[in-house]
Design goal:
- Helices cover 30% and strands 24% of the residues.
- It has 315 residues and is α+β, with helices and mostly antiparallel strands.
């Protein structure tokens, strides 16, 4: 890909970081709402009141002495995920898929002893992974079993769907697929694949890795052109509901499709990145301005999702 002038990017409607920060994040996101989305436990409790499903909570470890209770609870679990409530960028998340004696088996196949897993919990409580290093709590959730039709595209990690929601309207979406380069995490900056999704249908548009177009997943070798996300209408409505739950006007909503429970919310992001535009091959600005120009915004999340599907669909 050659160099593209700022003027050409502007014609494509690309939202840059300065404009995102000033015109959308600062303007539409109340600072008082940030603690709600920067804390996964608070997020889970808040969205539950609005009918948004999340992975089932097994335990919250708040104090050092509670780690012994974790050991007892984990005895009966086949798999689970440990997350720092205030972690970001996937830091500190440990996914356990099984157990062999006193050792736990991670999603990568690596083994970790009970002692090391408990030490990891201690590190979470100490704030090793939290924003600004503040003391944190660890949450233990059910293991997500990704829907087979999506799981096959990803390398080890669970694929997720990022939806940018503006004023309660889902305006752009992408599927994030883990790779060997991203160490099994769905982080585009670390080398995960971003697949742009048609808001109207949930079907793939094109794909990028390290901001360069690709047609095949670098590790699975599967073509990325005919991916179709199931329960798409439901996912868009879930994303739209997060507006009422948080009051945030501009945010990223991260969802997964569980094989048994369907769409689930993973987390919210008050400062979503801009790589979603590269994955979609189009800019956010025209869609954001479309919503800003509405004379009579839609009241119900389902209506907002329907409007977005009709207004921003590729077909």
């Amino acid at each position: 890909m050659g160099w593209i002038s700022p003027r050409h990017l502007n014609r494509l409607g690309m939202l840059n970081m300065n404009r995102r920060n000033v015109d959308y994040i600062a303007r539409y996101n109340e600072r008082s709402s940030y603690p709600l989305v920067d804390n996964k436990l608070k997020t889970k409790l808040a969205v539950a009141e609005y009918g948004v499903k999340t992975p089932r909570l097994q335990q919250v470890v708040r104090q050092q002495h509670e780690i012994s209770h974790f050991r007892e609870m984990a005895e009966d679990l086949g798999g689970f995920a440990i997350k720092p409530a205030k972690g970001s960028g996937g830091k500190g998340i440990t996914v356990i898929t099984g157990r062999d004696g006193d050792e736990y088996i991670k999603a990568s196949g690596a083994r970790i002893s009970s002692e090391n897993l408990e030490r990891h919990l201690t590190n979470i409580l100490a704030g090793l992974y939290s924003l600004a290093g503040s003391p944190d709590v660890a949450i233990v959730e059910d293991l997500i079993e990704s829907e087979t039709s999506l799981a096959k595209y990803s390398y080890q990690g669970v694929p997720d769907i990022r939806i940018v929601v503006f004023q309660g309207y889902p305006v752009m979406a992408m599927l994030r697929l883990a790779t060997k380069a991203s160490d099994g995490k769905a982080n585009l900056h670390q080398g995960a694949v971003g697949v742009g999704l048609d808001i109207g249908t949930g079907r793939s548009l094109n794909a990028v890795q390290f901001n360069r177009p690709i047609t095949l997943h670098p590790d699975t070798g599967l073509a990325l052109e005919n991916i179709d996300i199931s329960a798409w209408d439901e996912m868009l409505e879930m994303a739209a509901r997060c507006f009422e739950a948080t009051g945030l006007g501009y945010m990223g909503v991260d969802l997964v499709v569980d094989a048994h429970q369907g769409p689930l919310l993973l987390e919210l992001n008050a400062r979503p990145g801009l790589a979603i535009q590269m994955a979609n091959g189009r800019g956010l600005l025209p869609r954001l301005r479309n919503i800003e120009s509405l004379k009579r915004p839609h009241f119900h999340p389902r209506e907002r999702a329907k409007y977005a599907m009709d207004a921003f669909g590729a077909l």
